[in-house]
User: Fold this.
Amino acid sequence: MINFWLDNWYANTSLASILEVADIFTIDTSLLISNFISDTNEWDIMKLRLLVNEDPLQLILAILIPSNPILESICWGLLGNGNFPT
Assistant:
């Protein structure tokens, strides 16, 4: 399951990092991405607006939600030098 605040799903980093959350205890770290996907398999914009402002919201809405269930997986992104961190 992908954590809404802490996992690197948003612009290849965590949403908490992008929004510069200074104190992790001020956010609900139990929230998952699935908490923000509606029964019709679309982003729940009303829920998202409660937590993020317009700029991150637009980037989130640009992320397509797969129409069929897929297994979650972990992957590593490249560093600036082209190497994978381990």
In short: The two ends are 21 Å apart (CA to CA). The chain has three helices and no strands.
